Amino acid sequence: MIDPLVASSRLSGAGLEAQSMRLRVVSENVANANSTGRTQGSDPYTRKTITFKSQLERALGAASVSVKSIGGDSAPFPMQYDPGNPAADDKGMVKMPNVNVLTEMTDMREANRSYEANLQMIKQARSMISATIDLLRG
Q1: Cys staple from 36: which of 32, 41, 87, 91, with CB 3.0 to 4.6 Å?
Q2: What is the mean pLDDT of residues 13-40?
Q3: Dist CA 8 CA 5 (whole Å)
């Protein structure tokens, strides 16, 4: 049987990895929030989404998280009048990315807080392991 402190560290590590990937996806979305297509009528950058899955860690006897998939958002592309853009259609309308920066910033803050919570769990487990070792020495 795996020590509960070690198990909690491993589970928190899986959470760190998942939230790190989420932050990467959000960063990519924000970086491409204004990336239009290159040719007339072409599609712009499509917002990426991330899906997590819960999986049973048999060795730990607990559920853990991992990235299930990274996909594309099916929301429609907003149109913007910009006749000078190479991606503009005959009417001067350009398809813009379906990225809402406010939504991305909200996702970023939530992922950051989850990351910090998992990191704090690892710090607490290390502290408890250290205290146990000190008691055994004593």
Answers
A1: 87
A2: 96
A3: 5
